[in-house]
Specification:
mainly alpha; 67% helix; elongated
Length: 72
């Protein structure tokens, strides 16, 4: 996996939490942050899907039409 170095500003309370969990779990802080962001992005994916489902202007297709489109 390619990585990038970021310089970010966080509230000190979040930094304290990151330090605590990194020490408790014997993990690097970058791993704790990356894992937390991955989980949050999963949550955001669900929020986006819910928003799209509730939008009457968003086009949907039936499961049968999806299968036909995919050749299944």
């Amino acid at each position: 996996m390619n990585t990038v170095r970021l310089n970010i500003t966080l509230p000190s309370s979040l930094n304290d939490d990151i330090n605590h969990f990194a020490e408790e779990l014997n993990e690097k802080k970058s791993h704790i942050i990356a894992s937390a962001l991955e989980m949050y992005f999963d949550y955001l994916d669900i929020k986006v899907a819910e928003k799209r489902l509730s939008d009457p202007n968003e086009k949907t297709i039936s499961f049968d039409d999806l299968k036909k489109e995919l050749g299944l």
